[in-house]
Structure formats: structure tokens, C-alpha cells
Amino acid sequence: MDFIPDWDDDERMGFLFSFFPPSRNANPSHWDAKLAFWTEAIEAWSDRTGNLVVSRRKLEQTFRRKRSTPACLATVLDEMKKSGKLREKSSFLRRRGWLSWGYDYVAQTVRWVTKRASGGGQDKFSADAEQQLVVRSVIKAVAVDLARHVRESALYRESARGMISLDDLKRFAEESCPRFFSTVQEHSDNLALVILEMTEANLLVVHEELSVVKLSEEATDKGSSAITETDVAVYRLWLTERKLQADIGRLTQKMTWLKSRAKGLLSEKRRGEALGLLRRSKQLERMLSQCEAHQTTIQLQLDKFEGIATNKMIVDTFSASSAALKKELSGLSVKKIEDVLEGVEEALAECNEINEAFTAANERIADDSFDIDELEAELSRLTVSGPKQESEEAALFTPAAAAAPKKAVQEDEDVSPEKKETAKRSTERTRAELA
After folding, report:
1. Would you state the CATH architecture of domain 229-326?
2. Which sign does the torsion angle of CA 285, 287, 290, 296 carry?
């Protein structure tokens, strides 16, 4: 039991082997911990050993430890059934009818278990010990895994529209998943249960009359692909083509042997017998030609069906893409686009008007409100009075003019303050005019 933690811990396992308390409310944490431990242990054992169906008696034997068996398994199995982690095996068989190849054994097993559980004066405790329960998490994983293996196999690629006979599926399952589909007695009904699980999970559908299954094109919640009348017709053509192929191989081999035997008889000078064998060889050659002609016709029909399926797929793709384009273009129209573009043109025109207004305002501000005519007249006056003004300015910088301030300073001492102030103001006015 290397896959079970704490299996060698006596104290821990003593607690886990004990009965559950009468009510979960007494100690919810211990109750939940013990239930989780045994749930994981049962699922791990089922997956490792390939036993999709368990019973309390089988589990007590499996988990026996130091001459003691878990006393809590009855409660564990009841809780797992309530939560949907276990399912009664008999409930799977309610969808019988198509399972003719494997149902008999499964039904016999359930009837035998039910008879033992209900007869012989056994009590309910003993009956529950024999009840067959399917581990849901494991069978779901096996169903998905088997569907994936089949889809990736040459068996599926060479099939007719994904339809596979139950016998071919059984052989493939035994080869690809021997842990669950071996020939041992305990696994003999596993495939039937897995197929039922796959039908419930929409992984495949079953055709009862032909004893074939068809894998869904894609596992979705919408359901698997149904087997249509076209599928049935294609499958029967495919079966006929396979039979013709086998007949062609058999006839070819027999013709080769007859010719070889006729050649040997001829060497022994048994010409009559050799001629009879050669005649038989010619008859087989005619049969071979007919078989090859029929095979060619069937192959042409299969190619037609394949072409129709391809065309239908292309049309469906175009239809889906057209619907997607229409959905993306919803809300768009030529009128709406024209209105939007017209709005853009109006906005651009308004922007241009605003820019022109800003340009005109800037030009007025730079002009500073000066009249050009006045400026031209003043420039003319300056040109006329230019030589006279230059001579007056030159006189101000002669030596005599430079000495004049010194003399004025000496005379200032004899001048009254009022006269000084008057002279000062006059001088300032003169300087201002010159500037």
C-alpha cells in the first residue's frame, strides 16, 4: 500500500480504521478528514488495479491490515454514493438493448449478486457488503482516455466516418489499455461499463443493429454526432469493400497455387490433370475480375460520399464565416459611413476657420495700431531737417561748449536758489528735446 500515506503508522491507522461517530456534528473536522482519506484511497486503488467496480467486501479484503479490517467502510461508501462519487452498477444497465455482445455477462453478474444479497435470510448489512459500485472518477477518466487513444489510432483513421465495430473496439481497448481491459475475470465487463459512460458523456453513440460505435467529432455539451442513414450506407459499403478486398487476396493466392500445381503436373506428363487445374484457374480469374470491378465501383461511391462530406463541410464553413462577418458588420452601413465622413469634413472646415481667425488676430496685434501714412510723413520731415539738426548737435560737443559748465558752476555761487531751479528745469527740457 505504498500509495496510501501513513499506512505504517499504527496510531494514525487505528483512528482511520475505527467507526465514524453517530453524527458528523460531534467532530466535523475528524469526520471530513477520515472520509477524504478513504475516498482518495479507494479511487487510487481502483485506478492502480483497473477495478472499476468495487464492493465493501472486496475493499475490506484489500485494505486488511494486521488482521484487522476498516470498520468505517460502510459509512464511507454511503457518503460516496450520496456525493455521486460511487454509482450502483445496476443503474448503468438500465440503458441496455444495444449491449447484446456484453450485456449477458454483466446482467448475470448483477442478478447473481442481487440473489445472494436478497436470499438465504441474509441481513441488510451482508447485502450491502456485496453491492457492486462503480468508481465514477476513474471510469470517467478511462472513458476520456480511451476516446483519445481511439481518435489517434489507425483504426479510427481507416474507419468509415469514424464508425468502429464493437469487436474492433474491444480488441483495441485490450491492446491500448490492458490495465482496465485485460481478459481477467474482474475486468470482463469493464468495456461495457466504459462504453455506457462514454455514451452518457456524449463521447460516442452506438448503433444496435450494426453493433458499431461512432465517436463524436468533438466532445461538447451539445451531444455527440448521431449515426445517420448516410453513415449506415457508407459503413455497409465500407464493409463490402473490405470483404471484396479479402476475397481478392484469397482468389489471387488460390490462382497462384493452381498455376504452380498445373506446371508441376505438366512436368510429370499428366497433361489432363494440368489442363483441369488451368481451367479452374481461369474460372477464378473471371471471379477475380468481377470482384475487382465491384471493388472499383464501391471505391468510386465511397469517394463520392467523401467528396459530398467535404463540400458540405466547406459550405458550412462559408455559412459560419458569412454569419460572423454579418455580425461584425452589424451597425455599419453606407449611409452611416457617409454621415460620419460628412461630419469629419465639417469638423475640419471649422478647424480651418478657427486657425484663420487666430492668424488675423495675430496680425492686428503685431500692427500696434500705427497709421502708415503718418509714419511716412514723419519720415519725410526728418529727411528735410536732417543737416540743420546735425550742426546743432555738433556745436554741443565743441571745446567752448565743454568749458561752459565750469563757468556756469562758478556763476552759480552768486545766483539765488530760485534762479538755479528755473535754469535747471530749462536745461532738462532742452536735453529732453534733443533726445
Report:
1. Orthogonal Bundle (1.10)
2. negative
